[in-house]
Amino acid sequence: MNKRVIVVGAGASGMMAAHFAADEGAEVIVVEKNKKPCRKLMITGKGRCNVTNNSSPDNIIAHTPTNGRFLYSALNFFTPQDVMSFFEAAGVPLKTERGDRVFPVSDKACDIVDALIKTVKKDGCKILTEQAVSSLVIENGRVRGVVTAQGETINGDSVIISCGGASYPLTGSTGDGYNLALAAGHTQAQVRPSLVPIECAGDICRRLQGLSLKNIRLSVYRGDGKKPVYSELGELLFTHFGVSGPLILSASSHMKKCSVEDYRLVIDLKPALDTDTLDKRILRDLSEFCNKDFSNSLGKLLPSKLIPVIIKLSGISPHIKCNSVTREQRRALAELIKAVKLKPTSFRPLSEAIITSGGIKTKEINPKTMESKLTPGLYFCGEVIDVDAYTGGYNLQIAFSTGALAGKSSAEIKEDT
Fold first, then answer.
1. What is the separation of C-alpha 273 from the centre of its chain, rounded to a whole number of angstroms?
2. What is the mean pLDDT of residues 219-233?
3. CB count, 10 Å around CB of 190?
4. How much is the pTM?
5. Is 336 helix (H, G, I), strand (E, B) or coil?
6. Where in the chain is the domain with CATH 3.50.50.60?
7. Which of 131, 239, 305, 337 is most deeply packed, by most CB within 10 A?
8. Among 53, 155, 123, 146, which residue's Cα sits nearest to residue 407?
């Protein structure tokens, strides 16, 4: 007889798990507490959905700082190219952008969501919405089903926990999967935010609130270290509390080994110019506006909102005439523009994080099947597992790969079932 597989959570990993379980001939029931599946997927990539990273499984692992090697089997079972082929076959043309990031050509996350839903329904899977799972049915040490919040028992041969982490709780990721796993004897690595905005000391960020800087370099240093733990070109956004944007989200994943206050953020506003070249550029602008106030000389070099902040940090009077700015002041200004320093004080709350770091410990999960080593018939996939990666499509690839492997493994007929 074919097995009945129950998937708890209709997110990216759960929907892929449902597809692969059905493809193995299983009867699949997906239980989702939201009104619609894939609610969190709808907002990923600023609504564009960075589906995967067009690279190798080894590259995905290299960009997964937390337990990356655990993913070897899953990523080789369902590779980035397999993910791309899956969605293109489902009618969603894809494109590869900078950093090998893959998006739908339409730039609409809803196309990815629709493709998943249509595929799972075509597979014959049953999707039960607005039904949360409150507990697992465990008999003789083995999972035999779930109990919903409404008190209904749904019997099954395998249960896949795919209900996400604890970030973006409004999308349904409220840590339910952790509680179900703990009740089955699992343990949990500390849950904390990852890919999250950063709060900073002082009033610089508040004064620059709303300013987005592109093509700048952000470097993160730990303590007094001279070698950055992270350094990348890209985009950054100032907010009322500190900084956000793609560079900051990625940087936050590198700031886990100690308290966030032990790090320094350094922004190079002109990474294409070395200090000497920038100094000559400033001299040229000062010469052009030689009889004007210094505050009127930086308009060609910096965004207008940034100018008064940089002038204050430089210590140069905004009212001094450009022809009175000394060589030493000009040199110090160039060095400042190449290294604007911010002092981080804390991460924003877990509710604002794109993904959750921490989760069910990987040592308790068979990496070749995603099955629990403690409770037969119980499987895990996606963000509920203690794995997390940098931005760039890596986390969704992990969701799809672990979901695919869990789905296939959960549907396989074994002698003990």
1. 31
2. 93
3. 8
4. 0.83
5. helix
6. 4-194+354-411
7. 337
8. 123
